[in-house]
């Protein structure tokens, strides 16, 4: 067997762990024996990079969280005076679409059994959550959201709403994604209307000045 390039074995192990997690949907069912058999290495070679199974699972999931954060950032391209509001909505849409495209991986990272051991540190260390709170705080600083509200609480409320609809699209695959997206935006409306200043409300209404009929017409389309 040809020798792997330096560092390739480590990446092959991480990729295999994610594949097994998506195949089984259960952290507990992923064994070291199965991993090394599929990768084609020995247990000592695996333990050279990952001293424990928990460390291996954690690093594999952390790598996927980082990829998700990059995906969301790629979907953010706000501009103009309503940039921060636009980016807030784009972050939610990007996460929801990613969940629809990667249902098994979303389930493992956010909904799977046994995932408590894969989470370390503070929730607010999550780069995606911090970026969302950055948009919220910028909205406050720019007079789009009322100054007396708590940026962290708003962020958590928006985050919970997005993940609620993301889990919906993962659990009920027969619901077309455009319907779920429209539901998410609709759920945000009363929350944002209660938080936005007159200037923020003006910008938000301009963002949605085009009719939603096109979205509604496409809502019945089947998923690819």
Automatic annotation (TrEMBL):
- Gene3D superfamilies, per the entry: Tetracycline Repressor, domain 2
What keywords would UniProt list here?
Answer: DNA-binding, Transcription, Transcription regulation
UniProt keyword Zinc-finger, yes or no: no
Q: Could you tell me which residues form the DNA-binding region?
A: 31-50
Which ranges carry the HTH tetR-type domain? 7-68
PROSITE patterns registered for this protein in UniProt: HTH_TETR_2
Any one GO molecular-function label of the UniProt entry: DNA-binding transcription factor activity
**Protein name (record):** HTH tetR-type domain-containing protein
């Amino acid at each position: 067997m040809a020798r792997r390039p330096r560092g390739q074995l480590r990446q092959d192990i991480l990729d295999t762990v994610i594949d097994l997690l998506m195949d089984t949907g259960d952290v507990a069912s992923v064994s070291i024996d199965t991993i090394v058999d599929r990768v084609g290495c020995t247990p000592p070679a695996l333990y050279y990079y990952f001293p424990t199974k928990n460390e291996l699972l954690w690093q594999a999931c952390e790598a996927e969280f980082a990829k998700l954060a990059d995906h969301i950032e790629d979907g953010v391209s706000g501009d103009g005076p309503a940039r921060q509001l636009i980016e807030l909505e784009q972050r939610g849409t990007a996460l929801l679409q990613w969940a629809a495209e990667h249902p098994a991986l979303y389930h493992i990272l956010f909904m799977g059994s046994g995932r408590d051991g894969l989470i370390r540190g503070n929730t607010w260390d999550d780069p995606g959550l911090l970026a969302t709170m950055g948009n919220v705080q910028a909205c406050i600083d720019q007079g789009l959201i009322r100054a007396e509200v708590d940026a962290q609480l708003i962020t958590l409320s928006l985050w919970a709403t997005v993940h609620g609809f993301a889990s919906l699209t993962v659990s009920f695959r027969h619901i077309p994604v455009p319907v779920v997206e429209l539901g998410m935006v609709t759920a945000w409306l009363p929350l944002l209307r209660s938080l936005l200043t007159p200037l923020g409300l003006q910008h938000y209404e301009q963002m949605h000045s085009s009719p939603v009929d096109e979205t509604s017409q496409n809502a019945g389309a089947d998923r690819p």
